[in-house]
Amino acid sequence: MKYLSLVFIILALPAWAEPPQIENVKATRTGSGWRFDVTISHPDTGWDHYADAWRVLDMQGNQLAIRELAHPHVEEQPFTRSLSGIQIPEGTTQVLVQARDLPGGWNPKATIVTLP
């Protein structure tokens, strides 16, 4: 039984290692800043392993905004969530969008977004 449990743990490891992926980003300028609609895919399995946030960074890696995700999206993949009122410095033409999961943390691969 001990060996069978170990086999199941080893088989589950690749799923835990997969970081959340940014599938699409739509950035729209509004009267109160910018609105970002971000589509993420991730093999959420429940409260112990799910995509739990995305953020907008300037090209130097400074955080401009963060969108916390309040629950797993096991049955909704990929999923899109929005954040409005993001203040981006004038003259900025590109930003980065990065996704995070629990327990893995921030995906080191960020998506470059060219602002319209």
Q: Summed up, what is this model?
A:
Helices cover 14% and strands 48% of the residues. With 116 residues, it is mainly β. The model is unreliable at 3-15 (pLDDT under 50).
Protein architecture, described:
The strands form 2 sheets. Strands 3, 4, 6, 7 and 8 form a 5-stranded antiparallel beta sheet that branches. A 3-stranded antiparallel beta sheet has the order 1-2-5, with no helix packed on it. It starts with a helix and ends with a strand. It is 14% helix and 48% strand. It is mainly beta and 116 residues long. The protein has one helix at 2-17; strands at 21-30, 33-41, 50-57, 63-68, 79-86, 94-102, 105-106, 111-114. It has a single domain, classed as Sandwich (Immunoglobulin-like). It is globular. Strand 6 and strand 7 (105-106) form a beta hairpin. Mean pLDDT is 87; it is low at 3-15. The protein has 1 helix and 8 strands; from the N terminus they run H-E-E-E-E-E-E-E-E.
